[in-house]
Amino acid sequence: MSGTVPASSRPWMIDAHQHFWDPRVRAYPWMDESVAAIDRPIGPSDLREAIAGTPVAGSVVVQALHDLGESFELLEITAREDVVLGAVVWVDLAAPDVADRLAELREHPGHLAGIRHQVHDEPDADWLRRPEVIRGLKAVQDAGLAFDLLIRHRESAAALALAEELPGLTLVLDHAGKPAIASDEWDDWRQWFGRLAALPNVNCKLSGLVTEASWTGWREQGLERYGQHVLDAFGAERTLFGSDWPVSLLAARYDEVVDLAWRSASSLSDAERTAVFAGNARRIYALEETS
């Protein structure tokens, strides 16, 4: 099956990766002139508008800033907005009291789905190997939470070491490791990507590809092969769909991102597609059933 996602009697997909922010309230260091088109408040009403007419029924909101205040606010959104099923938030993994902060987040109204740190923005490529970070990630594991890996090639060796040191920690590689699609990165990406895929505690999001490609020429760059390789490497049981909206708006409409992921999964069975587009997110992030 290929092309546009078939019409459904009701929405059923889960978008396992989207963001909210308000630049009037907080400064986002990564938000510069190159992303001016999305430098504005974006919240749940915008998400509802974006998913209208698509098969997406709910989402997981993911942190966009190293800020504990944002973490609590994202949890509050999940408590009051039925379309937002869970939140992957930030906590200071290197802090001595990280276990206490995790407990506070879990007790807060809303659904804590996981933890993320923007590792690829750290000056130290080996940040994930620091003893205090490993200790913090053990606390994440003990709390039964997943950890989203936001890395590129530079941080892949540290991520591999982490996955091997903490085999009980559920890891989710964001955006397929952000291959440099715009410059046709392929062989190098497949090599280090494959080493992570070989470890059973690592999962991967089929997300973020359009903005790693040329923002104006991604339709001609054959992105389906990257998506298909994600599925070949991780299998339908460890791959989950995410839009990376509204970052994805820099290159594509929401429905185009959904269609691209669907085309990448064209060889899968109906049961496998259900896992990739809903079931795996529900399992990994302990989400409630959508209605």
What would the keywords be for this entry?
291 residues; alpha/beta; 8-stranded parallel β-sheet; 10 helices; 8 strands
Q: What fold name stands as the CATH topology? A: TIM Barrel
The CATH superfamily is identified as: Metal-dependent hydrolases
Q: How many structural domains can be distinguished in the coordinates?
A: 1
Based on the structure, what is the oligomeric state of the protein chains? single chain
Order of helices and strands: EHEHEHEHEHEHEHHEHH
The first-to-last residue Cα distance is: 26 Å
- Number of alpha- plus pi-helical segments: 10
Give the CATH architecture: Alpha-Beta Barrel
Strand order of the largest sheet: 1-2-3-4-5-6-7-8
Give helix % range: 25-40%
Q: Count the strands?
A: 8
Unreliable spans are none
Under the CATH scheme, which class? Answer: Alpha Beta
Can you summarize the main beta sheet? 8 strands, parallel
**What is the strand content?**
5-15%
Structure classification: alpha/beta
Mean pLDDT: 96
Provide a quick synopsis of the model:
The protein is 36% helix and 14% strand.
Report on the structure:
This protein has 291 residues and is an alpha/beta fold. The protein has one domain: Metal-dependent hydrolases (TIM Barrel). It contains 10 helices and 8 strands. The chain has helices at 44-51, 68-80, 98-107, 131-142, 156-165, 187-197, 209-212, 223-234, 254-264, 270-284; strands at residues 13-18, 56-62, 84-89, 112-117, 146-149, 171-173, 202-206, 239-241. Strands 1-2-3-4-5-6-7-8 form an 8-stranded parallel beta sheet. Helix 5 (156-165) links the parallel strand 5 (146-149) and strand 6. Helix 5 (156-165) runs parallel beside helix 6 and helix 8 (223-234) packs across helix 9.
